[in-house]
Every structure is written in C-alpha cells, then in structure tokens.
From TrEMBL:
An annotated Gene Ontology molecular function: methyltransferase activity
InterPro entries with a match to the protein in the record: Methyltransf_12, SAM-dependent_MTases_sf
Top-level lineage group: Bacteria
PANTHER family xrefs: METHYLTRANSFERASE, SAM-DEPENDENT METHYLTRANSFERASE
Signal peptide: none
Annotated TM spans: none
Domain spans labelled Methyltransferase type: 41-137
Protein name (database record): Methyltransferase type 12 domain-containing protein
Amino acid sequence: MERDLISRLAHADHPIAAPLGDAAVTALLERALPRGDEHLLDLGCGGGEWLLRALALVPGATAEGVDVSEAALDHARREAERRGLAERLTLHQTDAAGFVPGQPADVVFCVGATHAFGGLLQALAAARKVLAPGGRVVVGEGYWEREPSAAAVEVLGDLADLPTTVETITADGWVPLYGHLSTRHELDDYEWNWTGSLAARGLDQPDVLAIAAAHRDEWLRGYRDCFGFATLLLAPLS
C-alpha cells in the first residue's frame, strides 16, 4: 500500500497529524492569529487540519496548504467543502521545500513535517523566506525526553533533547513566544489512533494489519519511553 494512503487511513480518527489534543491546537491557534485577518501557509499540510481549524476559528483568515500527497489534499478539499471553508483555502500539490506562495504568509505552519526539508533548521529557513514582516511560525518537532535506545534512534533518527532543540532554534534567530509539550496522554492517544485506525480499516487485509502491528511494536518497544514532541510559536529576530 502506498505510504500517503497509509498515512491518510492512520489519521482518520486523529486528523491533526501530530500528538496534540484539541485544546492544545486551539490554544496555539489563538496565540498565532491575534488580528483575525491573517494569511496562513502550511508547508506539508497533509489533510489540512491545522488550516481548517484556523479558518473556522478566525472567519477573516485565508490560507494556503502545500503537500505532495494527492490523497491528503483530496481529503482536505472534501473537508473544506463540508465545513463551508473552501472559498478561503487554496491547496497546492507540490514539494513544500521549493514552494513560492503568491503572497507572504502572516503565519507559517510546519508541524511534524520538518523531515520534508531535511531537518528543523532547513524547515525554519524555508518558513523565513515566505514569512511576511511581523509574521509568526508554528513548528512542531520531536525530541528525546531521556537517552534513547538504539531501536528508538533507528526509527526516529537523530533528535536532540528539549533544551538543545530550543537553543538550536534561538541560535538560528528565532524567539519562542509560546509552546506546548505533548503530554503522555496526547502521545499515547496519537499512537493508539494511528495504529488502531489503520488496523480497523484493514481487518480483512493482512498487509495492512502487518503495517499497523509493526508500527505499534516500534512505538511500544522502541520510542514510547523516550520520545517527546514540542510545538512552538516563533517570531524571527528583526
């Protein structure tokens, strides 16, 4: 099964493709959109849930989303129509790393998608290029809560701890204005939804069940006890 279709099925019951609950998402959006007429851009938008919730919360906002997945963008379009938000949302199927918007964005989102740029600093560099003066960035990145096992590193790659992650961001010329550290409940809820949603839609498909089981095993035996996730609201230094 194609990777983007797996992701779409796995996020069916947790449309925010990151370990954040609804209250945390709303709090971040309220901080990021104080004016009410912002233009938003999500680099690696997936199913567009961050943008859809922002548009519902702030009726004066407009938004663009960029992703390479046709399945994810089709889902975003259907949801935008269903929620009456389609007129304020434009979607682009292209590589987010090279995307140039028609206008600078007041808020750039890149939550759980920094890998598409080659890492955190590369994602922030791309966001800076498309950010309007006085704009903000909402970025979500994993970190190690404690020393990872070799199995965890093999699955998730070379992450830093939280203080080092924040220091790396500030050294790159960004000021954290707000942040959310995913709770144990949010982290576990995300993984149970990912594996369970995929399995529920593939009970008659052994290959789909195998993918869900392999992910569940990587989580429970590999990174559950050492992985954390931070979502930060950032402003560039002038």
